Amino acid sequence: MRGARKRLCSALILAYVLFSLYAAYTVFLRPRRPAGPRPHRERRGPRGFTDHVALGNEEWNPWDADEKNELAASQQRYEANLKMIKYARSHLEQTSLRVQIWGKAAIGLYLWQHIFGGHLEPADVTAQWREGSQKAGKTYFSFLTGPSVVPGYFSVEAEHVVLVLNGREPAKIAHATQWLHYAQTLIESRKIQHVALVLLGNEQCSNAWVQPYLQRNGGFVNLLFVTYDYAFVNEEDIFQWPLGVATYRNFPVVEPSWSLLHDPRSYLCNFLGTVYKNSSRETLMEILKQDGLDKLCWIAAREQWQPQETNESFKNYQDALLQSDLTLCPVGINTECYRIYEACSYGSLPVIEDVMTPGDCGNSSMYHSAPLQLLKTMGAPFIFIKNWKELPAILEKEKKMSLQEKIQRRKKLLEWYRNFKAWMRQKFINTLENSFLPGDKG
């Protein structure tokens, strides 16, 4: 008896499974009949009586509309899931490049925090180890910096590396070459595939030491981004890079505010810096003293350069930028200086002494507007002068400008600087992707 019941239950289960498979076939897999003409609905008897639908030889199916709705809903769910799968797949495919940036020069902080808008953890600028990450374009970037980041003592987590190094003087070059030799070892052992170099170059553009490391000269460095008007810039594998702000003095990322844009400023101009003997800066100071112009500007001159700021001197410098309509930028060893970019951050228009300094900087095969080729190419809305004797006329014009005119000028300057950083960021990313990604070479 018990065996008969088991056989009956098994038969019922089998019948149920077969019926379910048939129903699934009918609903989802069986070809649908082509749609015929809409049935003619007749109404018999007075209102309220049951309607009869003539379907030819077929009887009316009261569940047909529900089946169609369910099929339509199923189709929509399927298409939505398919879109999600395609999106996820394309998102994974787009992140096709992983780049690790080793920031071993302060200019790396300008790249990461100011141009990329990236963050670092911990926030403490004195920390021995700081890191951050972000996705941009097809690339996932990670950034490492700090004294504890030394060759062989951190994890290399990408096949593509950007080295940020200081090549300004012999001691810095010796340190930079150690990092380059470490990267070369990783290339030879096939732990990484590509290397790009962001270099704080020599102020007189004496960068011959780096040439043997470039791939074009038999080395392993695929791309070079270098500061100042380096004559070998070709926009193919050597690119000019902005000097940026003095991140080694912890100059901050300045977010524009209403007061920064709209408040009247107490001074027409400012100059806080070192006055070198027999330089144009001495000429500038003499001109400012004429007719009491120095009373209209925030002037704090010193005779010797100081690499480190005190809290008080740094606050005074920031206040001077914030409270001045113009920032005077006389040449030093090079025409390009941190002051230009720092003034832009605070909406204080740079007045730049547009003359070439001694050394090997100058026109390249791509640019013929030295000095400051990169800034001029990007249409920087600065005041360029050839001699500080032009300054009194500039300040006289400044006196006559209305606050509204100055506000509009600040907006234009801040907008240009924002676009400049965004353009440099995109150019950097595109250059890496075009060089490092297979099939993306332009």
UniProtKB/TrEMBL annotation:
Domain RXYLT1 C-terminal: from-to ranges: 248-437
Alphabetical UniProt keywords: Transferase
InterPro entries found in the cross-reference section: RXYLT1-like (IPR055286), RXYLT1_C (IPR057538), RXYLT1_N (IPR057539)
Protein name: RXLT1 xylosyltransferase
The encoding gene: Rxylt1
Transmembrane residue ranges: none
Domain RXYLT1 N-terminal: 99-242
GO biological process terms, semicolon-separated: protein O-linked glycosylation via mannose
Example GO molecular function: ribitol beta-1,4-xylosyltransferase activity
A cellular-component GO term for this protein: Golgi apparatus
Coiled-coil zones: none
